[in-house]
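INFO  loader      accepted 1 record
INFO  loader      residues=115
INFO  predictor   begin
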Amino acid sequence: MVANSHSINAGSSLLTLSQATDKYGLSPQTWRNFDAEGKIVCVRTPGGHRRILESSIREALGIDDSTPEDGPKPAIYCRVSSLSQAKEGSLDKQRARMRGLPPFSVPGVMRVWVG
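INFO  predictor   done
INFO  writer      dumping tokens
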């Protein structure tokens, strides 16, 4: 495997595109674009598949591991436009979807955490 000018430590976590997509909620194409733009560090397997250095993902997405767990927690606002939508379960679906999102930030989008 060859890295993009960063050294990979023995304790570094490498993720496949699929694992990164599942964990951080961005599409495989976004990870490919980030790799091409140098926003994340990828290594290639002998077969040519990407493995993404997880610490570079967290850095690119602005995830700060130093934030204390007992610190302030941002809130997420879910709403529906009508009582009928609430009765149909739209609000519950929104809540479930928001709880399933990973903590990340994307330029132009507010930072999201779900507790």
